[in-house]
Specification:
This protein has 273 residues and is an alpha/beta fold. The chain contains seven helices and four strands; from the N terminus they run αβαβαββαααα. It has a four-stranded mixed beta sheet. α3 links the parallel β2 and β3 (103-109). α2 packs parallel to α6 (146-165). The protein is elongated, with a radius of gyration of 49 Å. It starts with 8 loop residues before the first helix and ends in a 28-residue tail after the last helix.
Amino acid sequence: MHTRTAPTFAALATALAVLLVVSAPALAQIPDEPSGYLTDAGDVVVNDASVEAAIARVVDATGSQIAVVTTNDTAGMSSQEFARDIGERWAVGGTTEETTGQGVVVLVNLADRETWVELGNGFDGFPRDLADIAAAGDGFFANGDFDGGLIAIISRLEEGLVLYGQGVTPTPVDPGPDPGPDPGPIDQPVPTPADQGGGLATGLGVITAVGLGVGGVALVSWRRRERDEVVAARTELVDGELERLRVSGAELPTITEYLIPASTSPEPITVFD
């Protein structure tokens, strides 16, 4: 027969103290539940009222609760864990049966330079990519404009919330054509040591080298033949021109053509005074 000893009060107190010590740093970093939609614990927002107004407009238009938080410290937790804890601790999304889980937490983790958008578990099939929504503020944040970055994120979040309220679901990703059943492994002969030792690679290398050598010789021979043909054509052209310009003996005037015929009685020469 086995008996169980009830834990003493001291043991329970010790366990509770350890639990509180472990969880206290994380809980201490989560801000107290705010009265508005924006909690700028990172102190980077310049005009809180404009950001609050942008969030309030989306809340009124969609009915979803939104909490926007900036922080410099997540107590060692990831952005997702910290955002989820905020949503649970603050009960973002309301407490009524109709609104439970319809909450959104937008966390700007300044320490890790990361923006995280966490949806409550009441959303099923959100029609927009949350990473794309979070990235809407990157350009503004890079220029130090956190007001503009948060408003850009809220605006893109509103698009998804409106579509979700209209019953729009995410577009399924086309997996492409069915490749068919897996034929399984294909039996192949196991190469022997004689077949290895670079057999195929070496053979291809030798064939490639021989092919390149033969191709090189053929290329040189072809270029020489082409050069000889060009030289022969030029020689024929020059010789033809020289032949055309060469004067034959029959074409030259004879010496007798230049002789002045002799006169038996020379003409008198008249001298003018």
